[in-house]
Amino acid sequence: MESSAAAEALIPRFKLDKLLNQDQGGRRITLLGSIDSRPALLTFERAAFPTSPETIQFFHSTLTNVTNLGANDIYAWYLASTRSPESSEVSAAPDLKLNLIFPCKESHIKKYSPQTVRMVIETPAIYTQYVRPYMQLKREEGRLNWVFNIIEGRTEQEDVILRDSKNPGHDDEGFLLLPDMNWDRKTMSSLRLLGLVERRDIWSLRDLKKGHVEWLRRVRTKILDAVTGVYPGVEKDMLKLYMHYQPTYYHFHIHVISTRLEPNSTQAVGKAFGLENIISQLETMAGGPEAGLADVELTYGIGEASELWTEVFAPLKVEQEKSG
């Protein structure tokens, strides 16, 4: 590769043998082939999206074949294709996944804006005095309408993979499993599913108690059985199950993803808590059935634009610094 021209001339001479790998949720593929009868690897990775207002506007205008995958309350998600800027030719297959929030609120804008993440320590006292009332307030603002629409059978029923409501003697143990809105429903390396419990007394992992261990084990088993039954080639040890803290919404849910999905901020330390680890922690916790995660200290990350930071942890930090 002595010059740019020589290097550029290699790409047209590449002859494909097979697809070797697909990762980053399908956004990068590696091909095995040859150039002039010598083995070669060629990786395709989607370039970063444009950022100038003019280019973004033009890019938006190239969208076509927009197909809705689902809609619930203020959320909708789609697949779409893009036209070549030089012609009217449309991509043969959808090459974009779109998520729409409409009408969006100030809280959504803050969530998706760039911001510094702060690691905070939430003691049982801080949780009880500040965070639990914050959760209550958010639940009362109607942010769970889309969750209740699913649970009560008003929307997305055609997407439900498993509805488990028949547990004799355990009427409060029902749950549903369905595709996550962030999954395109076809790229198995980026598989994302969501387990929603029907009961409404568990808002987050903070509400989990020692007495919930057997229920959590049953939910885990049923989720793994359902996923491996619906998606051929997926085995139980190829799945991660976890919860977020803080979660985006305060109704207990479990995220199910492929182990092939490359980790991002939603799976990072200080955000994702593995279901199996939570079960183990509860099981070995001292005390009776009522002992639980409301009694432990949790460290996690929150954005500086979040209300939990501006209204709770930032003021607490100022007080701590003043007191020395």
Model description:
With 324 residues, the chain is an alpha+beta fold. The protein has 8 helices and 14 strands. The strands form 4 sheets. Strands 8-9-10-12-11-13 form a 6-stranded antiparallel β-sheet. Strands 1-2-3 form a 3-stranded antiparallel β-sheet, with no helix packed on it. Helix 6 (213-230) packs antiparallel against helix 7 (275-283). The longest helix is centred in the last third of the chain and has 18 residues, at 213-230. The protein starts with a helix and ends with a helix.
List descriptors.
single chain, 324 residues, alpha+beta, 14 strands
Brief overview, please?
The chain has helices at about 5-10, 55-60, 105-110, 125-140, 145-150, 215-230, 275-285, 305-324; strands spanning about 15-25, 30-35, 40-45, 65-70, 75-80, 95-100, 115-120, 160-165, 175-180, 190-195, 240-245, 255-260, 270-275, 300-305. The chain has about 325 residues and is of the alpha+beta class.
Tally of contiguous helical segments: 8
Give the strand content.
25-35%
Distance between the termini: 61 Å
User: What's the number of extended β-strand segments?
Assistant: 14
Task: Report helical residue fraction.
Answer: 25-40%
Shape: globular
* Helix/strand structural class: alpha+beta
Low-confidence stretches: none
**Major sheet:** 6 strands, antiparallel
Average of the residue pLDDT scores: 89
